[in-house]
């Protein structure tokens, strides 16, 4: 009779221990913070900062008069004169700025290749070309 009780106690104790182990095992797994995303941090910053080219409108001319850029790049015209100017396509509608006041800028992104001749609609002698490759 005593042996039977002792065996039952041992079995019970073993069961409790096993139960504790099984309960604490998943708790430990959840508690451990797996540091896995640190690998991908900083590896995907493909922010495509398009190149920007500057054209100055100064002394009633565009400088440089001819600009070569790549598709997708920006051109910024800055009016450095005391007179307003425009950036207007000779043909087509690629470039059609409003009046650019002295000190103001006009930005255009060229999304297709081609040769884009333009002028100032106020001063038609002002002529420039953007070649997009
Ligand atoms: Cu002008």
Major beta sheet, strand line-up? 2-1-4-6
- Supply the CATH superfamily name of the domain at 52-132: Cupredoxins -  blue copper proteins
Q: Assembly type of the shown chains? A: single chain
Q: Per DSSP, what share of the residues sits in E-state strands of 2 or more residues?
A: 25-35%
**Protein structure class:** alpha/beta
Identify the overall geometry.
globular
Q: Compounds present?
A: copper (II) ion
- In whole angstroms, how far apart are the ends? 98 Å
User: Count of helical segments?
Assistant: 1
Q: How do the strands and helices of this protein lay out in sequence?
A:
Layout: H1 2-31, E1 52-58, E2 61-63, E3 66-69, E4 74-79, E5 88-89, E6 105-109, E7 114-119, E8 127-132
Parallel strand pairs: 1-4, 3-8
Antiparallel strand pairs: 1-2, 4-6, 5-7, 7-8
The structure holds copper (II) ion (CU).
Copper (II) ion (CU) binds near residues 85, 120, 122 and 123.
Could you describe the 3D structure shown?
With 133 residues, the protein is an alpha/beta fold. The protein has a domain of 81 residues: Immunoglobulin-like (Sandwich), CATH 2.60.40. Helix content is 23%, strand content 29%. A four-stranded mixed sheet has the order 2-1-4-6, with no helix packed on it. Strands 3-8-7-5 form a four-stranded mixed sheet, with no helix packed on it. Strand 7 and strand 8 form a beta hairpin. The N and C termini lie far apart (98 Å). The N terminus is likely disordered. The site of copper (II) ion (CU) has 5 residues, from loops. The site of copper (II) ion has 5 residues, from loops.
């Amino acid at each position: 009779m005593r042996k039977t009780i002792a065996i039952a106690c041992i079995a019970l104790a073993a069961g409790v221990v096993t139960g504790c182990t099984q309960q604490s095992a998943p708790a430990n797994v959840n508690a451990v913070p797996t540091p896995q995303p640190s690998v991908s941090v900083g590896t995907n910053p493909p922010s495509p900062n398009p190149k920007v080219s500057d054209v100055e409108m100064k002394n009633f001319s565009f400088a440089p008069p001819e600009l070569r850029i790549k598709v997708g790049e920006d051109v910024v015209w800055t009016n450095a004169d005391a007179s307003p100017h425009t950036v207007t396509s000779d043909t087509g509608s690629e470039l059609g700025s409003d009046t650019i006041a002295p000190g103001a800028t006009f930005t255009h992104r060229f999304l297709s290749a081609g040769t884009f001749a333009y002028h100032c609609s106020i001063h038609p002698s002002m002529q420039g070309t953007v070649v997009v490759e």
